[in-house]
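User: For a benchmark we're assembling, each entry needs the component sequences followed by a predicted structure for the full assembly. Here are entry 17's components. Please fill in the structure.
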Amino acid sequence: MTTLTKHASTAPLRAGAQKPRGGLRRFGDIKIALLFIAPAMIGFIFFYVVPTIRGVYLSFTEYNILGDPEWVGMDNYSAIAKDPLFWNSLAVTGQYVFLNIVLQTALALGLALLMHKVAKSTLIRGALLLPWMMSNVIAALLWFWMLDYQIGVVNQFIEWAGLPRVAFFGSEEWAIPTQAVINTWRHMGYTALLIFAGMQAIPGHIYEVAKLDGASPFQTFRKITIPLLRPVLVLVLVVTVIGSFQVFDTVSVTTQGGPVNATRVIQYYIYQRAFTESDFGYGSAIAVILFLILALVAFIQMKFLKGNESDLD
Amino acid sequence: MTTTTSRAPLPAQTRRRRPFNARRAGAWALIALAIAVSVVPFLWVLRTALSTNSALASNSASLLPAEFTFGAFMRVFGLQSPADAVAEGGSGAAIDFWLYLRNSIIFSSITTAGAVFFSAMAAYAFARLRWKGRNVVFSLFLGTMLVPPIFTALPNFLLIKNLDLLNTMLGMVLPYIFMTPFAIFFLRQFFLNMSREVEEAAMLDGAKHLRIFFQIVLPNAAAPLATLALLTFIGQWNEYFWPLLVGSQDDVRVLQVGLGVFKSQSPQGAPDWSGLMAATLVSALPVLILFAAFGKKIVNSIGFSGIK
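Assistant: Structure for entry 17:
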């Protein structure tokens, strides 16, 4: 290291310092680049590209792991179109996604505003981030215990308040909202920090001008904060929606699709078809549909909410 | 910005003070509430884990452990005799979290080390080397972030099965060990912002890229590499779906999957809540320790991605 820097300071060598950028070097790097990128390329090809192609192929086959996949054309897709369980899973997942958007975005936005106004300490942000550090399984089990119908502490409080106990996981109408609340609990602090980081990026002088102009806090929030936060909010929205569509862990360790079909979300249904019923073709076809839905959602949110453009520029 | 033209009158200063403080107090109260909601459940888990399971029902809301005991932790680590376990309200089924703890550590460490190192190599190629097709390949790598994990999980499962690697540690780590798109994106961004001067000087000195990478770039990027390793490790520690598919046998089962199994072992009538919460705490502990030690790094890394 030291010898290298010494040489760098000699004048004749410095004059040539621009050379590696152009000229011969332009094509000379390909060999070394291949070496550097080789391991990542192996992972990219064998665990992303090939499985993506294979997944699409499998969706046109009937395949139960034993034997070879058998080409059946669009059969899986036409069966899915008539499958009430699929439509149910779509509806249930949609409900879950919707609840997550509303709860998570509203709470996180409020929390970010509060942090921005009064509390910027790392300790507080750390405490709020704690649930996000935990796995879905832990979050699920923790709430499975706290929300237990018989001896869960939440139901104890509900009873003290003079209300009837709630079967959070055991009743069809409560099961999905409960799952959504668990997810919101786990992600609220994280989402708030993302929004908070966005707020920090808004130049302070804009607020000062607004204040001098006599804008009320609400006006400032609606006319300055929200528009300038748009890229961050769109990002949060995309991440929330895409993440919630793939809910699996919490359902898998708590309700396992039930009661009846109340929490049979898309990914859980794929898992059941592929691994419990050994129907890989059918499972893959639903996975393709999920993939398309997510791509569409991301496209719409980026295109129409213009998430990749900032008003700050 | 706003169309309002009336200026705030100066004397308002004195009048404004009081509501301002009240509002501040309200804001603090709400933040305190949010912190309580985030943290108190963990204290409740600890309280439950230190209770005797059979005593929980009659003390469902007392703040202190019901009939204090370390029995639940002993049960989780297979140190309690079945008779004692049943007496304290456990199921009596053998469970060994030492094994799962070991598996989780191996699984998370190997995948983190591999993914961070190989991603750093790739990021170097994307940030520092000039080669045809570089930007196209980088976009393709980034594009994989859009593919939902469930979609590749099915074919990946078949691949691991065809390779006869089901229920082996190798099969568990393979899909993660070579790279993660996020790691490449994260490190490339950092490398691009790093000063090139030292590297160019070294190059004139005849140093090859390998030496520059190992002796200049990696040491200079120690801080972001550590942050990335931390985030990757925690992510891998919390991974559930893939280990569930590929590592269902005891000798490779990780903690998250073990927790699910432990939960389903509980007889329907009276689950072993103390044991389950002790197991949950054991599974959370390594992350809690990392968070206590490096919390600042983690907190400050939030907001890096996506925001320019």
